[in-house]
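From the pipeline queue, job 12 of 40. The input is one protein chain; the requested action is below.

Action: predict structure.
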Amino acid sequence: MRNATTPAPAEAGRDPYRPDITTMRAAVRRLLADDAEPPSPEELDTLTLQLRGHIMVLIPQVEKATGRLPEDDVPRACAMACVGEARMRLSLEPGRGLPAGISHAQRLARSVNALADHLENLTP
């Protein structure tokens, strides 16, 4: 019997510390796709928490990826600006009502998307 913490054979080559970008982008699409339906208030709460968690996971990964680049490197500067904006968005609270909550979650989703793009561009 296989231990639950042992990676499945298909996942054996995958870095266990690398975020699951595919899952993160699925949450982003739920809010930003052209044909996205507005979420219910309960679903919005779940999505918002999920997106905040994704940002909290991505920020240190992007920072780590930029750490090996020179201080004056343009991709490094862009990634670090994205990190700063994501941190700022984490500190904000949504306004009152469903439309304000959706707008807040969409901003978080854009940060997740941008951080994921930077991580993919900065790591092999």
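Job complete. The chain has four helices and no strands.
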